[in-house]
Structure formats: C-alpha cells, structure tokens
C-alpha cells in the first residue's frame, strides 16, 4: 500500500475530525467510582427512621417515627423509609438488606476501609430493625405506616401526623415471602459481619434460621391475608408468588451455615417451588435470577450435579443480556440503557448489573464461561455490559446527566421525595402538616435538601427525563435501587478500566 500524499492525508484528517464532531461525545476520563460509591452508601442516611445518631452526616434529617410499634407494645423504631414516602415496608426493606449485605460479601474487599465501615453501618441500621420485626414468637411485623393515608400527604417524616399502624402476621397465617426474604437478609448480613463483629453475626444467623422456619411452616403470600391486603397492595403486594423467597432464604442459609440440611432443601424442593421456571427477573418481588446465580456458585466450585440446572438457568439469564448471544432479547434505550417497562427502571439496571458482575466473578474463579447455544460468553463480556450500564447512569448518556443525585455537574434537582423537597426542620422549625407540603410538591424550584447518592427511577425508553417531581416513576429514589449499586460501584472502584 502506498503512503498517502501530504494533501490527501490532510484531506483525510479534516474529514475524520468533521465526522468525529457528529458522533456522541465519549467519556474523556473514567468516572470517579470511589466518589460514587461513597455517595451511594451515604444515601441510606437520608432514609433513616428513628433516633438519629450524633454522627449522622445527612444533617438536614432529624428524628422521626419514634412511636412506631407502641400500639402493639413493641419497639419498631428504626429501619428505612423505602422511597420518597414515610412508610416502612418490610418486603422491599428485607431485599434491600440482602443486596447491601451481598454487596459486602462479594465486593467488600474492593471497598476503601472507610466505605466498608459505612456500608456495614447502613446494613446494621436495617438489621437491627428486622430483628425487632421477628422478636415475638410466631409473628412477623411486615409494615409500619398506613400507606393510603401517608400517600395523601406531603410532609416531612419529622412532622408525621398520619397513622403509624403496625401491620403484623400471626401464625398460622402465612408470610413466606417477607419471612423468607428476612431470613435471606439476616443470613447474608451474618456473613458481612462475620469478621468485624462475630457476636452480632451469630445473633443474625440464629434469627435467620428462626425467620426461615416461620416462612416454611406457614406457606403462602403475606398479601393474601385479608386483614392487611388492602394496606400492602398495590404498593408491595406479592405479585409473583412466595415460592422463590423460600428457595432464596434456604440458599442464603446454606451459604452462611454450609449446613447440608439447606442444600437438601434446595435439591428436594427446587422443582415443586418453581426453581426451573427460569424467570428472567430480579428485584424485591422476584428472586429467580439472583437465586440461580447464588446457587450456581456451589455447582461451579463443587460440581454438585443436582445443582447443574441452576447454572444452566443462570447462563440463560446472562444470555438474554448480551447482544452477541443468539438468545439476546433484552430491550435497550437508544442510548444503551437496559429498559424494562413499568417505571422505576433503574431498579432493573442496578440489580442486573450486580448479577452480571457477581456471575462474572464466579465464572472467572472457576475458569468457566456462560454457554449461550453455540456461543461462549466470557466473564469479560459480562463485566463490559455492566460497565456500560454504570457509566450511563453516572452521566455517559444522551442527556449528559448523572442519575445519581449529587454526583457530577448535572443531576436531578426535583426528586419525588418528601424530606428532600420540603425545607429542613432545622431551617423551617414550624410544623408542615399533611396538606401544607403541597406547595413544595407543586413547585418547580429545586429541592432545598440534597439527598446525596440517591438513584432516581431514571429515564424513559427514549432516554428522555423531565426532572419532574410529580413523575414518581422517573424521579423517585428507592433503597432497592441503591443497594445493588453499592456492590457494582465497589467492583469498579477497584477495577475502573
């Protein structure tokens, strides 16, 4: 091939530069994943209920929900408000706790020591509360706060004057989903605390076993109980069945205890409880994909043939996420974000990204890959897909906006969150009653309190985002969006490229 003349080369260079200006801008430098990790953990301080400690860093928040549980003669203070409202829902809270703990179990070694401590503090704020919910024999408290009344108000948690009803399920009524997820949360968190606080770890594990016994002994969905159905549905109703939570709880107890009884449970009950349904979903209501990834670890490391179907199902899930796979069918926005219809899309993005990274680690440590028909998908491919999602969320997207509040130069200003949108009680000590906050809800002004680290529901299927407080599907943060992102960011903090 001949060397180009100077004139033709100059023409080529000018054309190339012109073409480059038409393309979407690429990230100039890697994101500051350590900073994003710190903020993702800090978010949980803004969701705290109960007596706040002296070292509370989200200083615009104050004590709230201090009478929770008193109508039943039990202390139910603490825990987290799940989203932008002032209700404590046990089902998504337990899932949040499981994913925070799994983040530490898998990626705690990748976290800076200070952020590992902060993550453990975030987990403990939840586990202390979960222990209270199962502290009375043969019952589990599944929710605090009347959502129908709460959702009719726009007020700070510090000003709550709505009913703090405590919703409880007593045996023999079923709550397999909430109790099973609580068992998973306590078992996973027992592993997270094992080295730093072995005494607390043992307490968590002992109570995880108790919660699982309740879940398995009285099988059924908590939202089928007539006494509470109208107050837990349609908010966190069990839409997909309780069976996956039983297997999920057993799988985490197997991981935490190495007890053969839980392995037997998974092996003997997998088919009857729907493990082979291979539902490609993972979130607060559906644990199938996470269950398959979690259990596949034991097959990959020990080749227990009876668990091979879990590895095959985990492969199948991963194959739907990779464009090069013959079975790829995941939807993406034009800008490349994983998209599932229904609102609050980032809950899918963060949980799927987490599973991609966890499974990539399991495969790499055992020198294996995912099998998609005749195509082999490497751990590197799984990580690249996760990285594309993370970078989109942090700002590499058509709007050039970070969907994490407080990260980057452009991020959502009007999130659907009561405490963030109403002036802090420190700045505005006068009570803001139920309807008094409506003026702040309807305002187009930015929220006065920055809920640092909050991940909002995220953009629509066309990458659009209006930053509208009233559009809760796009602008409301939740604990279960953030929880898996902690693990994802921990991985990329240690492996940025």
UniProtKB/TrEMBL annotation:
Protein name: Uncharacterized protein
Naturally occurring in which organism (per UniProt): Melastoma candidum
Taxonomic lineage: Eukaryota, Viridiplantae, Streptophyta, Embryophyta, Tracheophyta
């Amino acid at each position: 091939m001949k060397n180009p003349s100077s004139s033709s080369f100059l023409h080529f260079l000018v054309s190339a530069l012109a073409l480059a200006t038409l393309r979407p801008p690429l990230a100039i430098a890697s994101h500051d994943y350590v900073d994003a990790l710190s903020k993702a953990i800090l978010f949980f301080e803004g969701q705290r209920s109960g007596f706040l400690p002296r070292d509370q860093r989200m200083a615009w928040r104050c004590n709230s929900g201090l009478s929770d549980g008193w109508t039943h003669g039990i202390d139910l203070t603490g825990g987290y408000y799940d989203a932008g409202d002032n209700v404590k829902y046990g089902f998504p809270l337990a899932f949040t706790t499981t994913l925070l703990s799994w983040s530490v179990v898998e990626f705690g070694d990748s976290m800076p020591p200070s952020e590992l401590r902060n993550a453990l503090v975030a987990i403990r704020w939840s586990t202390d509360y979960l222990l209270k919910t199962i502290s009375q024999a043969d019952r589990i408290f599944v929710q605090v706060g009347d959502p129908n009344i709460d959702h009719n108000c726009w007020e700070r948690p510090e000003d709550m004057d709505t009913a703090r009803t405590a919703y409880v399920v007593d045996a023999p009524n079923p709550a397999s989903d909430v109790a099973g997820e609580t068992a998973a949360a306590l078992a996973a968190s027992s592993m997270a605390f094992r080295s730093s606080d072995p005494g607390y770890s043992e307490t968590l594990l002992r109570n995880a076993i108790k919660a699982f016994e309740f879940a398995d002994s009285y099988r059924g969905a908590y939202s089928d109980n007539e006494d509470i159905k109208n107050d837990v549905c349609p908010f966190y109703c069990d839409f997909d069945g309780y069976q996956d939570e039983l297997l999920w709880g057993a799988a985490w107890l197997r991981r935490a205890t190495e007890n053969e009884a839980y392995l037997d449970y998974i092996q003997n009950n997998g088919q009857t409880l729907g493990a082979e349904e291979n539902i490609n979903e993972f979130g607060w209501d559906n644990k199938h994909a996470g269950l398959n990834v979690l259990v596949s670890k034991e097959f990959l490391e020990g080749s227990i043939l009876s668990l091979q179907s879990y590895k095959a199902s985990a492969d199948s899930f991963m194959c739907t996420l990779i464009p090069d796979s013959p079975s790829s069918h995941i939807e993406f926005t034009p800008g490349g974000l994983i998209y599932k219809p229904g609102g609050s899309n980032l809950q899918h993005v963060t949980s799927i990204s987490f599973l991609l990274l966890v499974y990539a680690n399991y495969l790499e440590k055992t020198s294996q890959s995912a099998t998609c028909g005749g195509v082999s998908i490497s751990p590197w491919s799984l990580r690249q897909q996760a990285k594309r999602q993370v970078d989109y969320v942090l700002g590499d997207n058509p709007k050039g906006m970070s969907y994490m509040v407080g990260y980057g130069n452009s991020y959502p200003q009007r999130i659907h969150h009561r405490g963030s949108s109403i002036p802090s009680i420190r700045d505005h000590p006068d009570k803001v009653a139920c309807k008094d906050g409506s003026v702040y809800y309807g305002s187009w002004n930015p929220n006065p309190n920055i809920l640092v680290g909050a991940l909002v529901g995220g953009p629509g299927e066309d990458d659009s985002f209006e930053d509208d407080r009233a559009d809760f599907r796009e602008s409301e943060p939740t604990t279960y969006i953030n929880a898996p992102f902690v693990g994802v960011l921990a991985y990329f903090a240690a492996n940025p490229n």
